[in-house]
Amino acid sequence: MVLGGAVSLVLIFFLSFLVFLSAWGSIKKWGKMPPGPTPLPFIGNILQLRPNDVLNSFRKLHNKYGSVYLVYFGTQPVVVLNGYDAVKEALIDNADVFGERAMVSGFRKFFSEYGIIPSNGERWKQLRRFALMTMRNFGMGKRSIEERIQEEAHFLMKEFRKTKCLPFDPTFYFSRSVSNIICSIVFGNRFDYEDEAFLKLLNLQSQTSKLADSPLAQLFINFPHIMQYIPGPHLRLIENIKHLKEFVKERMKIHQESLDPNCPRDFIDCFLIKMEKEKQNMASEFNDDNLVMSSLNLFIAGTETTSSTLRYAFLILQKYPEIAEKVMEEIDHVIGQDRVPAVEDRSKMPYTDAVIHEIQRFADIVPLNVPHAVSQDTEFRGYIIPKGTMVFPLLTTVLKDPLQFKNPYSFDPGHFLDELGAFKKNDAFMPFSAGKRICLGEGLARMELFLFFTFILQNFTLGTTKDPKDIDLSSALHSGNRPRPYQLCVHPRR
Ligand code: HEM
């Protein structure tokens, strides 16, 4: 038995070595490769890309190798792009070539090939176009998305009032409100904040994000074939995704039973109607698998990102109360206290707009971006990148590019204001990425951030729970950026 195990291990190692040599060889034969640390067989550059310090590892490699470098995730070569110029040149100037999606092997295990996020080609085109159009139509329908957010903000204000000026952890307050917006678009209804199924769903999701950040999960994402046999909390990731899929499948069934084709209620209804229309079309991508995974994509991509940004926002405001004061002054001046904030107010509120942009830049919620790939052999900045090579256009290096922002590591709304106090655009503001794959929910997220942010500061002042100088704005994660846990305290303004 022991001997058998040892022989299998040697065999696996040998085979991996061959795969590594072929990957290395296939890149090398093309000519000039980007520079990068020498990989080891099988484990690639794991010594340089430490799973417990991913962001810092990338930062060090950027300092050493410059704006384009090559690393190996196991046997998988990855071209890493750094800084506004390189990322823009790839994602915007060469959008078609750099617009393919790649998936780190462990993620494929969770998300399969279905849905908007992992797909490419005809499938991606059909699903993305459909999702954008459906979300737009719901924006123009009986009740606009803006109205849905305003209604949800009222519920959030009610919850905030219940805290009676006592400190509380805002995490679930923000995630329930933000999640309800995407639930109402995808599933057709918002949930009561105490609804058990809803709380279970949110718990599952936040647990999944935390698990995905653990060093073992980082290893699992890169080496799923081995890590799936090693016990540990990372295995719960698969279980969690299974539960999330089951939740969506259940909703799909309920929708099928109550569907009125003349009166679609939400994204799932629209998808079911499209499935029926295209059932004779063999090339149609409108099927059960794509429905479940696209709905799940919208739900996962649309909840954690926006609610974490809001959570970061109010920690930042606690550290800089003078900035919160100035935003409140602008709210009082433009909106007042007699009506609710609306999206069209944003253009008249340059300071608030600049603060929200700066929050997104500073919070840098998706620092590594989602992996891309090149759709054809391509020459980029003097290097050859073969078709299919994975590419990481690192958003953190754009949002913190010292050539684009005066104080990249400080919180400074001045990054988005001119000398006269008018809003100043900056093309390096790319928290939603850029090009063909730019975040599909950008419009929705920006609307949510503006409305929730202004609703809260129109209705409450922020109490102090800690001396501002002791508030730590650094990230609580290894592989992403999330605020450290904190307590919020709000006092009604009227
Ligand atoms: C502050 C909030 C958000 C941030 C910072 C954010 C950021 C991102 C980023 C960086 C990407 C990867 C783009 C790329 O591959 O180049 C992405 C993709 C995506 N996002 Fe968002 N996002 C946010 C909110 C949302 C919301 C509310 C939705 C839901 C409607 C959403 C749905 C998606 C989808 C479906 C994709 C995949 C697009 C594709 O592959 O074509 N996101 N997002």
Automatic annotation (TrEMBL):
The keyword Chaperone does not apply. It comes from Microcaecilia unicolor. It is an enzyme of class 1 (oxidoreductase). One of its GO terms (cellular component) is endoplasmic reticulum membrane. Belongs to the cytochrome P450 family. It comes from the Eukaryota. Gene3D superfamilies: Cytochrome P450 (1.10.630.10). It is a peripheral membrane protein. The lineage of its organism: Eukaryota, Metazoa, Chordata, Craniata, Vertebrata. This is unspecific monooxygenase. PROSITE patterns: CYTOCHROME_P450. The gene is LOC115479606. Heme binds at residue 439. GO terms for molecular function: arachidonate epoxygenase activity; heme binding; iron ion binding; oxidoreductase activity, acting on paired donors, with incorporation or reduction of molecular oxygen, reduced flavin or flavoprotein as one donor, and incorporation of one atom of oxygen. Keywords: Endoplasmic reticulum, Heme, Iron, Membrane, Metal-binding, Microsome, Monooxygenase, Oxidoreductase.
